[in-house]
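Retro notes (design track)

What went well: tokenization of the new backbones is finally stable.
What didn't: we kept losing track of which sequence belonged to which structure.
Fix going forward: every design gets posted as structure first, then sequence, in one message. First example under the new rule, 462 residues:
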């Protein structure tokens, strides 16, 4: 690293308005930041307008003369500049926004230091500092915590301290004291030098001015540190939302809630008994032949959306899309007490959903959709596979058997085929599962391609 580069690195750490190094490539983090920034700016501008309105009324009460209009003009400029800041605000560092914040503080400083041009008051310039106008800077600082980064809030504190100090020093340098007043006050309060200085109209009271800026900077730093902690909390929440969004691509909402509160890693390989469901569109190749590709994609989207809804509604997990079909599991990533029953209920709901969809398609003059569903219950191995890109995988004979059962729906002219193992497990889970088997016919000792031994299964025909 060259000396110049190292110097720039050290300066960047000291530059208060430098933006935090957020991962803006992450859409969830960027969206959270943008939303927080926009909401904060809206709140800051509204708070500013309300505060300036109350301040305007307070000034009329304190100084019920036409000369107060000068200060109302200053308040109006501050309100207008707040609107400009809202328009220029964005996530990260904005030079325009920083410049407008600087102008904000400059307007405030000049408005408090420069004598009112509409006033014929002959009081010494030092008397301007006796009205405790500096406290109005706290309004700008408080509003800044609603919208800006913690670095910018600290910058507001340091800029204000510098401007205010420069202002009173220049005013002290160019002011013309009223002769004789200081001497008379000193004579009247002989023996009480501190009181004499406080009562002297020509005194700028430097110790009090210094105390003001030190306290202001301390408050700004404290607020900045608090805001940094809040920003970290925001980033943490954005990360959690990202993780929940990733989980929601695979698992039902109730499983996502459970996983988000569970420290057990998914990658821990284990063996479980679960229900596996396969579904696809019968004759989809023939259906899509000669059709517009966009129409085919829309049909697939409508099919997947409806089937996905049924999977999640029955507490299942969407394992993967398979072109014109999908694979779902029940009992992953965590086993439940009604996995087989939920899988059976889901298969029947899918059929009902397709029937309702076909009614709408027929009314629209579109071809009907036919499906085949295969469901099996058995042992599988669960766990993450992959190296850099992980995928939650379900592997085992139960998956293969369910896929084969779905393929046999063509041969059996069936809409649903469930294995006898799934039926037995569903009846063991709840006696009401017998109602879900209404309309099914048993096919004993059937040969299933790819399965070594004959098996019993149940068929719901078209």
């Amino acid at each position: 690293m060259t000396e110049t580069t190292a110097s720039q690195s050290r300066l960047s750490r000291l530059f208060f308005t430098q933006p935090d190094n957020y991962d803006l490539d992450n859409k969830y983090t960027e969206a959270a930041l943008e939303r927080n920034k926009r909401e904060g700016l809206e709140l800051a501008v509204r708070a500013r307008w309300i505060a300036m309105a109350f301040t305007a009324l307070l000034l009329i009460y304190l100084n019920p003369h036409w000369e107060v209009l000068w200060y109302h003009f200053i308040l109006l400029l501050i309100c207008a500049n707040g609107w400009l800041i809202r328009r220029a605000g964005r996530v990260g560092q904005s030079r325009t926004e920083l410049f407008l914040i600087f102008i904000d503080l400059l307007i405030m400083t000049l408005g408090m230091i420069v004598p009112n041009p509409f006033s014929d008051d002959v009081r010494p310039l030092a008397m301007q500092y006796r009205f405790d106008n500096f406290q109005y800077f706290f309004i700008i600082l408080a509003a800044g915590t609603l919208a800006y980064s913690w670095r910018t809030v600290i910058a507001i504190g340091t800029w204000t301290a510098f401007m205010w100090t420069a202002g009173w020093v220049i005013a002290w340098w160019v002011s013309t004291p009223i002769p004789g007043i200081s001497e008379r006050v000193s004579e009247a309060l002989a023996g009480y030098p501190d009181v004499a200085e406080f009562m002297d109209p020509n005194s700028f009271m430097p110790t009090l001015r210094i105390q003001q800026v030190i306290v202001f900077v301390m408050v700004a730093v404290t607020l900045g540190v608090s805001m940094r902690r809040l920003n970290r909390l925001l980033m943490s929440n954005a990360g959690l939302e990202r993780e929940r969004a990733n989980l929601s691509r695979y698992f039902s909402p109730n499983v996502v809630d459970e996983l988000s509160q569970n420290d057990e890693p998914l990658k821990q390989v284990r063996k479980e008994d679960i229900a596996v469901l396969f579904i696809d569109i019968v004759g989809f190749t023939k259906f899509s032949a000669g059709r517009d590709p966009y129409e085919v994609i829309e049909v697939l989207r409508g099919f997947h959306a409806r089937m996905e809804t049924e999977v999640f509604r029955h507490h299942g997990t969407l394992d993967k899309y398979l072109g014109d079909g999908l694979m779902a599991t029940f009992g992953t990533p965590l086993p439940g007490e009604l996995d087989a029953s939920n899988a059976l209920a889901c298969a029947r709901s899918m059929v009902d959903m397709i029937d309702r969809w076909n009614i709408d398609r027929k009314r629209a003059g579109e071809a009907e959709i036919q499906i085949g569903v295969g469901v099996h219950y058995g042992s599988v191995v669960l766990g993450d596979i992959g190296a850099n890109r992980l995928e939650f995988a379900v592997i085992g004979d139960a998956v293969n058997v369910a896929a084969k059962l779905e393929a046999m729906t063509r041969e059996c002219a069936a809409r649903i085929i469930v294995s006898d193992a799934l039926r037995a497990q569903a009846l063991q889970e709840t006696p009401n599962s017998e109602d879900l088997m209404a309309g099914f016919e048993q096919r004993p000792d059937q040969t299933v391609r790819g399965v070594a031994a004959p098996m019993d299964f149940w068929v719901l025909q078209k």
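Added context from the reviewer: The beta strands are 270-281, 317-321, 325-330, 371-385, 391-395, 414-419, 441-446, 455-461.
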